[in-house]
Write a structure and sequence with these properties.
The complex is a heterodimer of chains A (about 625) and B (about 140). Chain A contains 17 helices and 23 strands. By secondary structure, chain A is an alpha+beta fold. In chain A, the strands form five sheets. In chain A, strands 2-1-5-4-3 form a five-stranded antiparallel β-sheet, sandwiched between helices. A five-stranded antiparallel β-sheet of chain A has the order 7-6-10-9-8, sandwiched between helices. Chain A has a five-stranded antiparallel β-sheet with strand order 12-11-15-14-13, sandwiched between helices. In chain A, helix 14 runs parallel beside helix 15. Chain A is elongated and about 190 Å long. With about 140 residues, chain B is an alpha/beta fold. Chain B contains five helices and five strands, in the order βαβαβαβαβα. The model of chain B has no long low-confidence stretch (mean pLDDT about 90). Classes of the chains: A alpha+beta (about 625), B alpha/beta (about 140). Chains A and B meet through helix 12 and helix 13 of A and helix 1 of B.
């Protein structure tokens, strides 16, 4: 069947086909002159009413660029070219998007190109809509995939249309399922059930619901999580077309809050939290509070605590919030039974202020009592000092008469031997009595903590030589051999309390002589073998010795008599106790090595401060 | 000068409010050859020192009327007496007493009770240290 059969009707139909085509169509000859253009062309290119037939396209549109001219030439050479959405700048600066197709048309021989056919369609609106849709899609993606919360869209029947955060397969299984059906996949059924009920209500009524519940952890580890869900309707043209559920994991916040409250409840103090303006945001429940916590929340502290104190609290809260520096103050409250003392401490906390209040009434009372007793103690120590000073003086005065007269009498000429001996015994015993008085006074002072250790410079070698001279006599008088060994490595210039050191050595040597009937007493002074900042002073004797049983007791006061030596050696047993106490006061120790019948060696080890010889020169 | 009587020819003033204390010190000094005058308090002592100018003074510290400290101060204040050596003789045996006494101007300090032999040793050592007695015991 050839076209010729329709020769009469076809041209009419073709004309109308062109006329009603939604696309703009124009046909050109090889010189780009218009052969025909449909009304859409005229409309589309703003040339309605213009006579363009027979005129060149380039004459009609002088703004046509070389780019287009090149396309035309390629198509005139046989190419077919098209573009789906070509931006086309208009003379007025706007850009239209054009879908176009340019192709050659052929002469009856089917070979010769007769010109071009151009189909164009302005699709600016579609392109803009598409762009807008893409933007919405991107935003949607960001709001769902990029949202840490679960975002679930349902249709108006409550069937799941979209859900984020699920792996592909899981997601595919869920899509299309009624929301309530995912209960099966969740061990926290009540949570989903409740949520599903709210969802159905939202779909029915258009109400937005909020719901805090416990569900499966998003981590998929089977753990639980707290979700704060918001269920909102999705409207289109005023019609509910579905709903969106946004479920935010608030576990961390809740745990944080729970931890805060847990910690706070473990504290016996009253705890409050305030906004920087002084409004209560947290009140720890406590029996000490007159008001229930819920009565305080959202109130300002100045409205709760009247007067200056409330003002003081508000100012302090404000300052702590502003500066971030903790504050503390004490205050008193008058209650029917008297005054109570409180201590308030304020700390900056997460943009708020934490107030911790402690009842310090008992502590204050204890402090007052302690201060009173310290005062009393100091008073009594002062009395004791005065008593000791007076006693010392008062005992020495009659002692002076006894010792003085007897020591004079002993040397009177022509004394009967018996009388002379009596005087000698009085002299010896008055010395014993004096020593006892001195020891008792010393031990009282040491025990009362009223003894001072001085730190003066002295020549240690000279001091040791002095001891040798002073104490040798008593040993020799008793028929004992006395020797003193001073190690040359012992420093000469030292600082310390030479008088107390002499007292220690004197007591030890007196003791050694007292308990030794035959043999020797040896004083050795040498640097400590382990620590040369320390000094060893050894007093060794060949006396009666001390049985192991008594070693731990010999430094205690008044022990000598109790230890029951067969013979009374005299003395109250205070000497070693004084030695030990003085050693401790000087930062040292005294030890004993002894066996019954084999003598004793007392070793005093004391820190000794060398005096800088450069500074010491010429002193 | 015999060794038994090292203070032969010396005039010594003993100041003490206690009779026995005065007598004990005086007897010991006399045993050593000294001539001893005594006073019961600082006031008496002051007058005797000015009138009799003893070689040295042994004075108690705690006394009524004028005590040893006040006596020392008064002697120091007077050009005629500030060079008289005064040695404190006291039953105050608390720590620091010696230092205080030396600081107040006493030449030295002897603790009571006194034992005659020890006392004389101690006293002679002290006297030997005094510049005005240099050569007196050679």
């Amino acid at each position: 069947m050839g076209l010729s059969q329709f020769e009469e009707i076809v041209p009419q139909a073709l004309i109308q086909f062109l006329e009603f085509s939604p696309q703009a169509v124009a046909i050109f000859d090889t010189d780009m002159r218009y052969l025909v253009a449909n009304p859409r062309w005229y409309e589309g290119y703003g040339i309605v009413g213009k006579d363009i037939i027979g005129k060149s396209h380039y004459e009609v549109f002088p703004e046509i660029t070389q780019h287009w001219k090149d396309i035309h030439q390629k198509c005139l050479a046989g190419a077919v070219m098209s573009e789906e959405a070509d931006p086309f700048p208009r003379a007025d600066g706007k850009t239209d998007y054009i879908k176009w197709l340019v192709r050659p048309w052929y002469q009856a021989d089917g070979i010769t190109i007769g010109g071009l056919i151009m189909y164009t369609e302005v699709i600016t609106e579609q392109v803009l809509q598409q762009q807008a849709r893409r933007k919405y899609e991107a935003r949607y993606e960001a709001l769902t995939k990029g949202n840490p919360a679960f975002v679930i869209f349902t249709d108006r029947d409550g069937d799941i249309e979209e859900i984020n955060h699920l792996p592909e397969e899981q997601r595919d299984q869920i899509i299309g399922m009624p929301y309530a059906m995912i209960i099966a996949a969740d061990p926290y059924a009540t949570y989903i059930e409740r949520q599903a009920a709210l969802l159905m209500d939202t779909l029915a009524t258009g109400k937005t619901h909020n719901f805090l519940g416990r569900g499966a952890s998003q981590k998929g580890d089977g753990g639980m999580a707290y979700y704060d869900s918001r269920i909102m309707p999705v409207h289109e043209n005023g019609e509910i077309i579905g709903a969106v559920i946004i479920a935010t994991d608030v576990t961390a916040e809740l745990l944080h809050q729970a931890r805060f409250e847990g910690i706070v409840e473990a504290i016996p103090e009253l705890v409050f939290r305030f906004t920087p303006d002084g409004v209560y945001t947290y009140v720890k429940p406590s029996k000490q509070l007159i008001d229930a916590p819920e009565n305080l929340l959202d109130k300002n502290v100045v409205d709760v605590i009247p007067g200056e104190l409330g003002q003081k609290f508000r100012d302090a809260i404000h300052t702590v919030a502003k500066t971030g520096v903790a504050d503390a103050f004490e205050y008193d409250l008058q209650v029917p039974i008297g005054f109570l003392n409180f201590e308030a401490r304020l700390f900056p906390l997460e943009g708020e202020v934490l107030l911790v209040v402690r009842d310090i009434t008992d502590m204050k009372e204890a402090q007052r009592k302690l201060e009173d007793s310290v005062r009393e103690l100091n008073q009594s120590l002062l009395f004791k000092d005065q008593f000791l000073a007076t006693m010392s003086h008062e005992l020495r005065t009659p002692m002076n008469a006894i010792m003085g007269y007897s020591s004079l009498a002993v040397d009177l000429p022509n004394l009967e031997p018996k009388v002379k001996n009596m005087f000698e015994r009085i002299v010896v015993n008055s010395h014993r009595l004096l020593n006892l008085i001195n020891d008792v006074l010393d031990i009282s002072r040491i025990n009362a903590g009223r003894i001072e250790i001085v730190n003066d410079a002295f020549d240690l070698h000279e001091l040791v030589r002095g001891w040798e001279k002073d104490y040798a006599q008593s040993a020799i008088k008793k028929g004992l051999h006395f020797s003193c060994e001073l190690d040359p490595d012992v420093p000469v210039n030292v600082t310390g309390d030479s008088e107390r050191l002499t007292q220690i050595v004197g007591n030890l040597i007196t003791n050694a002589v007292k308990f030794t009937d035959t043999g020797s007493v040896t004083l050795t002074v040498r640097p400590n073998a382990d620590d040369n900042t320390k000094l060893d002073i050894l007093v060794a004797d060949t006396g009666i010795g001390i049985s192991d049983t008594w070693h731990h007791l010999i430094f205690e006061e008044f022990r000598q008599v109790e230890m029951g030596s067969e013979r009374n050696y005299g003395g109250a047993g205070l000497g070693l106790s004084i030695v030990q106490k003085l050693c401790i006061l000087m930062g040292g120790i005294v030890t004993v090595a002894s066996k019954l019948g084999e003598g004793s060696t007392f070793t005093v080890t004391l820190p000794i401060a060398r005096k800088d010889t450069n500074n010491g020169e010429g002193e | 000068m015999s060794k038994e009587n090292p203070l032969d020819g010396w005039l010594v003033l003993v100041v003490d409010d206690e009779f026995d204390s005065r007598q004990v010190a005086a007897l010991m000094l006399e045993t050593a050859g000294a001539t001893v005058i005594t006073a019961q308090n600082g006031k008496e002592a002051l007058e005797m020192i000015i009138q009799q100018r003893p070689n040295f003074v042994l004075s108690d510290l705690s006394m009524p009327v004028l005590d040893g400290w006040q006596l020392m101060y008064a002697l120091n204040q007077n050009r005629a007496t500030h060079d008289i050596p005064v040695i404190a003789l006291t039953a105050h045996a608390m720590r620091g007493d010696r230092e205080r006494a030396m600081a107040a101007g006493f030449r030295n300090f002897i603790n009571k009770p006194l034992d005659s032999a020890k006392f004389m040793n101690q006293l002679l050592v002290i006297l030997l240290e005094q510049p005005e007695f240099a050569g007196k015991f050679d």
